[in-house]
Write a sequence for this structure.
């Protein structure tokens, strides 16, 4: 079973992402911001990180840069899932080190397909 770390500060999105991940047969864990995510990443192993961009304490861009600099997790795939829809914002996400970028609102099927591609799982 693939373990996915979801970093999202809004309860409603966490609830939705929990359902989507479990329906796909994955085991989601949650952090409410990038700072909380770094603590989980230091203790546990995950197959992928799905992170929002706009969060308090440490945003998604800062989290992705932290992941890419940390030898223990730097090769972990990261999907940014955000309301930032401008092309230059998407480029910023890739410049931070994200492997994929998906804008909210999103289709659960598209999210599942993108995460499956990142973790090497069937859709």
């Amino acid at each position: 079973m693939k373990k996915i770390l979801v970093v999202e500060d809004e309860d409603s999105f966490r609830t939705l992402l929990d359902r989507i991940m479990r329906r796909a047969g994955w085991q989601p864990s949650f952090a409410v911001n990038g700072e909380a995510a770094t603590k989980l990443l230091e203790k546990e192993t995950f197959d992928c990180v799905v992170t929002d961009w706009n969060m308090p304490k440490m945003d998604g861009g800062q989290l992705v840069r932290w992941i890419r600099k940390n030898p223990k997790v730097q090769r972990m795939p990261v999907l940014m899932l955000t309301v930032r829809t401008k092309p230059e914002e998407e480029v910023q996400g890739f410049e931070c080190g994200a492997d994929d970028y998906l804008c909210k609102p999103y289709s659960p099927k598209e999210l599942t397909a993108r995460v499956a591609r990142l973790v090497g799982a069937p859709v």
About this structure: The chain has a mean pLDDT of 94. Residues 3-119 form a domain with the Rossmann fold fold (CATH 3.40.50.2300).
